[in-house]
């Protein structure tokens, strides 16, 4: 699994110490994850850095795409799934909520319908149910979380869960996040933000959910340096970084 972080560091022309750090763990490209489970490859989100993330991680297969929500930092790399269309000679299955699928159809209008542009990406849009569904032979549990006023999907796969862009998780959704070996969850920075958890909010949620380990993603360059922030975190909480790999 690779966990990219956010929000597009290095920011062009930014002179901050994070954007100019030489530590690879301060690299914060747009957030996504790639999960390989028994040879089945699931890509969660396809943002603007998708192509480079796939090349750097040398990932050569995608069996299914899961999309958390329709913001561009999570979908705008979808043109770059074409090498997988060429490789498999078929459309890729993309799973999300009905609202997200309809926004993807609007954004990538040239990839759908009778007038589709011939070399556009080929996507087979699949609505997911609100409860468990199966990808390959694996049960996936969608978990609704709030991103400001927007409902966003998190996903649980066995004892791993991936939540991004949240700033509120209801008690019923939190009840689906117990007994985790690893929780990937967003924390934008220390200062408050209207639609993303700030660090203290994420840490108190982790404290109540009690995953064995938690990894903070969707980190902005306002968060501070990896080496500095890591010292402030509880023993079971880690900052994610670009191309991070977890073995579970
Ligand atoms: Zn978002
Ligand atoms: Zn985002």
Protein described:
Strand 2 and strand 3 (40-44) form a beta hairpin. The chain has helices at residues 50-57, 72-75, 82-88, 98-107, 171-174, 199-209, 226-232; strands at 2-4, 32-37, 40-44, 64-66, 92-96, 123-127, 133-135, 138-147, 150-157, 160-163, 182-186, 213-217, 237-239, 244-245. The protein has 7 helices and 14 strands. The chain has a 7-stranded mixed β-sheet. It has a 7-stranded mixed β-sheet with strand order 7-8-9-10-11-12-13. The relative contact order is 0.17. The protein has one domain (2-245): Metallo-beta-lactamase, Chain A (4-Layer Sandwich), CATH 3.60.15. Residues 71, 73-74, 165, 218 line the site of one zinc ion.
Features:
248 residues; alpha/beta; Metallo-beta-lactamase, Chain A; seven-stranded mixed sheet; 7 helices; 27% strand; binds zinc ion
Number of strands: 14
- The gyration radius over C-alpha positions equals 17 Å
Mean pLDDT: 94
Q: How far apart lie the N and C ends? A: 9 Å
Task: Write the CATH homologous superfamily.
Answer: Ribonuclease Z/Hydroxyacylglutathione hydrolase-like
Distinct ligands: zinc ion
CATH architecture: 4-Layer Sandwich
Along the chain, the helix and strand elements come as: EEEHEHHEHEEEEEHEHEHEE
How large is the count of helical segments? Answer: 7
**CATH overall fold name:** Metallo-beta-lactamase, Chain A
List unreliable stretches of 5+ residues. none
User: What is the approximate shape?
Assistant: globular
Strand order, largest beta sheet:
6-5-4-3-2-1-14
Judged by helices, strands and strand pairing, the structural class is alpha/beta
Overall number of domains? 1
